[in-house]
Amino acid sequence: MSALQRIDQAVKDNPVIIFMKGTPQMPQCGFSSRAAQALMACGEQFAYVNVLQDAEIFQDLPQYANWPTFPQVYINGELIGGCDITLEMYQNGELQQMVKAAMQGKASENA
């Protein structure tokens, strides 16, 4: 499976996912850290991919959604954006609503 296929599968399989440098507990970059903290503050579980552990994903992710930088946050298969957009959405309450709705949608699928 190519890196782009693996990225696509991860985005489709997880209602909320962040592609970041490091992990939410051990971020390797300030932008990734702040975006992950905003997601954690929403109070729902989310998936993550440490792009530093997979050179192919690190190289190919910018092409996947035509977004050149890390982190990248996806909700319900849609690119939300990077650190600045994620923080702005958190500050205005939009991120919490989107994350909660995405996780409720997943729960109803599994019911």
UniProtKB/TrEMBL annotation:
Residues bound to [2Fe-2S] cluster: C29
SUPFAM superfamilies recorded: Thioredoxin-like
Keywords assigned by UniProt, alphabetized: 2Fe-2S, Iron, Iron-sulfur, Metal-binding, Redox-active center
Glutaredoxin domain: residues covered: 16-80
Family matches, as InterPro entries: Glutaredoxin, GRX_PICOT-like, Monothiol_GRX, Monothiol_GRX-rel, Thioredoxin-like_sf
Pfam families: Glutaredoxin (PF00462)
PROSITE patterns linked: GLUTAREDOXIN_2 (PS51354)
One GO molecular-function entry: disulfide oxidoreductase activity
Sequence similarity: Belongs to the glutaredoxin family. Monothiol subfamily.
Protein name: Glutaredoxin
Organism for this UniProt entry: Candidatus Thiothrix singaporensis
Name of the coding gene: grxD
